[in-house]
Design goal:
single chain, about 325 residues, alpha/beta, 9-stranded mixed sheet, 13 helices, globular
Length: about 325
């Protein structure tokens, strides 16, 4: 089997200078790399890609596109031809065996619809030496990265994320194959965007959800749930990826506060057999997140979240035909 790499990028040429050489240096290299760029300065990205891939034997294609990560990834799907497509972020730093470990999971059979890598807290040796001046994580992002697992454990105890419970319901429907343990691979509730991949025939069928807008928060979760309808969604623990998170935010604080909650409601309403049964769980989690933002200092994110809490019941009880319209109207009210 072969795999292609599709990267959606915007205004981050220095990230590509770090990540592309690692993808090209894989012990199992890709058949093709497709980069879909929506940058304000496409020329800067062209220069970065040319520099990072100089001398590569793997074909590298750079496309210009309208902005929107889901849209850009869908554009990349059209250019891919291998059995598997991997969708790293432009700031995903791969260790040398990432692709090999993920591909071994696919080679166990067509029951595997999607495979994600595992996040590691340490970058590949030497990769960031001398890179700090051009492209560095902020102190705030480094701090968040260090406490992320602890914070997640606290949230599981106080206010379980409905995404987790919904994902685990898919496990029970499919069962757990014996070969997973042999490959150090596990079932996952969903795949995180910077380390996800899909069997091409699966992602061609389900596509990425462009209804989530330009920022497309949780597009990875939505695609994972859609993939669960086609087969297993698993995580290859031996595939180690470091997320060298880009400085800055892709969305305003109010929009992000609203999207954190509205997008959860929309995605579960879209995929649940009986969305109304999930309404109380989604609302309880939303109120917890709003309280968390308040304790954290409030501001625009809290405003967006508080407004979103009021909109969730309408989203959870909307019919499938009305869901998109109800979601978009709620989002606009929250962000106005």
């Amino acid at each position: 089997m072969e795999y292609d790499v599709v990267i959606a990028t915007r205004n981050r040429p220095e990230a590509l200078r770090l990540s592309l050489p690692l993808m090209l240096a894989q012990s199992r290299p890709p058949a093709r790399i497709v980069i879909v760029d929506s940058s304000d300065d496409h020329g800067a990205v062209e220069d970065a890609v040319r520099s990072a891939t100089r001398g590569a034997t793997v074909p590298v294609e750079l496309l210009a596109s309208e902005a929107g990560s889901s849209h850009q990834r869908n554009v990349g799907i059209e250019r891919a031809s291998s059995e598997v497509i991997m969708f790293p972020d432009d700031d995903s730093l791969w260790r040398e065996n990432v692709a090999g470990a993920m591909m071994r999971a696919y080679e166990h059979g067509a029951e595997v619809a999607a495979v994600c890598a595992a996040e590691t807290p340490e970058p590949p040796p030497g990769v960031l030496d001398g890179a700090s001046g051009a492209y560095a994580m902020t102190a705030k992002d480094r701090a968040k990265q260090k406490v992320a697992h602890t914070r997640a454990a606290v949230e599981r105890a106080l206010a379980p994320d409905p995404f987790v419970r919904f994902g685990r319901e898919q496990w029970r429907r499919h069962g757990t194959p014996a070969w997973l343990a042999q490959e150090n691979t596990v079932l996952v509730e969903w795949m995180t965007g910077f380390r996800m991949s899909f069997r091409r025939e699966v992602i061609e069928k389900i596509r990425f959800c462009e209804s989530l807008g330009r920022y497309a928060l949780f597009e990875d979760v939505e695609a994972s749930y859609a993939a669960w309808r086609e087969g297993l969604v698993v995580g290859a623990r031996d595939a180690q990826v470091y997320h060298h998170k880009a400085p800055g935010s892709r969305a305003g604080a109010k929009r992000l506060g609203a999207a954190q909650l509205l997008n959860r409601a929309y995605i579960i309403a879209l995929h649940a057999e009986h969305p109304g049964r999930w309404a109380s769980r989604v609302s309880r989690y939303a109120k917890y997140k709003a309280l968390q933002y308040r304790v954290g200092g409030g501001g625009e994110r809290l405003i967006g979240a508080r407004r979103a809490v009021r909109e969730i019941p309408a989203i959870m009880h909307a019919s499938r035909d009305e869901l998109d319209a109800v979601y978009h109207a709620a989002y606009e009210r929250c962000c106005s």
